[in-house]
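Researcher: I'm preparing a figure for a lab meeting and need a structural model of a single chain. I don't have an experimental structure, so a prediction will have to do for now. The sequence is pasted below. Please return the structure as tokens so I can convert it later.
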Amino acid sequence: RIITELLSLSFWFLALKHLNISVATVLFQVMSIFITLLAPIILKEYFGVRRLFAIFLGFFGVTIINFNIDLNYSTFSLGLIYGLAGPFFGALMFLYLRKLGNNDEPISSAIWHNLTGAIVFFIIFLFLQPNFYFDFHIYILLSLIGIISSFQQYLMAASHKYATASYLAPFHYFSIPLGFLSGIIFFKEEITFNLIIGTTVILCSTYYIFKRERSLKEGSK
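Model: Understood. Here is the structure written out token by token.
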């Protein structure tokens, strides 16, 4: 779980380097589709034809967004790879987190993840030998981000301990409007027609997967 989460975060930061935050946020919603693809392998869950159609619909939405960007093609292609690798490893993380939630306490999962991440990235930081300079405001901001992320890790682990993944799925969608607003307010990004259409297709795909899983669970009761 720790390895997949660290890889997911790393690819997310790399995607932000090459893509607008709104586009990277939308691509991260493909995680729900990857979860559906990987769940039969890791959790031995049922996989039907209609869910397969929803998965292809989601990737079609990603393709629509692919024609959205007005950037250097090689730069965007690299960003697209990072933008899809992030949700792929994020899906693996959520699947393993679902397994851990049956036995481990949320606080232990959060502490192990944050401690390991701090050590790994500190070693990478020393190995790369960046041009180190001290800016008080930047390090205050980074410290606040670290504190907020620690609470996020704990709450994410706790949610998967006390609620099923199908009921938690819709909450991931809140990141899309927040990503749009952040891009517009802080980075002056433009929300294009293709981005809106692609986002709608991805949301329809993930919402269908959520409703399908919920109906199957209710039918089995």
